[in-house]
Every structure is written in structure tokens, then in C-alpha cells.
Amino acid sequence: MKQPVSVLVVIHTPALDILLLERAAHPGYWQSVTGSREGDEALPETAQREVSEETGICAPANAYRDWRLSNRFEIFPEWRHRYGDGVSHNVEHVFSLAVKPGTIVRTAPNEHLGYRWLPWREAAAACFSWSNRDAILMLPMLD
């Protein structure tokens, strides 16, 4: 069973080009890296593991910025079977990871059809998830 606790990791370059992944289960749905916590791992460990699994990017734990921001949202009915009985909402914790331009990305073929880098405003507009869109729009204000 999946835990209703997850991470959203906005991967970006210093110029604020954003990495988006296209969901294999929903072609045309673009998003940042997301994933559920496993066991009792700390949320920064979840962010690091999910980024490595979904993109092949291996960054040290101290490279991840914890925004100390969480979003609660309803889990799509089609995905609720992955969770325990009666679980209908998830709490997502937001992180970001700055990478160098030209960072090599290797998507997980069972999860994603491909990837693209977009300027932050375009990336925000391309996201199907409101929490992902809002995080990308907040990114320039972090520093």
C-alpha cells in the first residue's frame, strides 16, 4: 500500500528552465518529479530517491531545498486502490533541486514517456497539477 504522503520536486537550472516529465499512464500530462514516501524514510530521502528513479539524476541530499510547504489534495479515484481503505487525500511536500544546464536525464520508461525543459512560465502553464503549477510560479521568489 502506498502512503498518502508524497514529495513534489521542481528540478530547475539557474536560468529557471524547468524539467517536466510526461506521464506514461496519461499521455499529455506533464509534471515535475513526484512520488510517495516509502517506509519511514525522511522526506528529503524520498525526494532524492524519486529524482534518481524517475530521471537518473543523482544529487547529494544537501542539494535539495525543502520549501517547508505542503499541499493537501484529493487523490484521483482511479488511483485510490493503491492506498488503504478510506484514504482519499494525500499530503504533498515541496522540494526543489538546482542542476546545471545540460544535465543528462534518463526517464523511467514505465512511468514517463519523455521529458522536456521549459522556461518557468511555460512549464507552469504546461502542468496538469495545480500544486505543481503553483510551486513553479513561486520558484523565482525563493532567493
Question: What would your notes on this structure say?
Answer:
There is one protein chain. A hairpin with a 6-residue loop joins strand 2 and strand 3. This protein has one domain: Nucleoside Triphosphate Pyrophosphohydrolase (Alpha-Beta Complex). Helices cover 20% and strands 35% of the residues. It has a four-stranded mixed β-sheet, sandwiched between helices. The chain is an alpha+beta fold and 143 residues long. The chain starts with a strand and ends in a 5-residue tail after the last helix. Helix 2 runs antiparallel to helix 3.
Rg result: 14 Å
Number of domains: 1
CATH level 3 topology: Nucleoside Triphosphate Pyrophosphohydrolase
Sheet having the most strands: 4 strands, mixed
Which secondary-structure class do the elements indicate? alpha+beta
> Which percent range describes the beta-strand content?
25-35%
The general outline is: globular
What's the overall average pLDDT, rounded?
Answer: 95
Spatial gap, N to C terminus: 37 Å
Strand arrangement in the largest pleated sheet: 4-1-6-5
In short:
This protein is of the alpha+beta class.
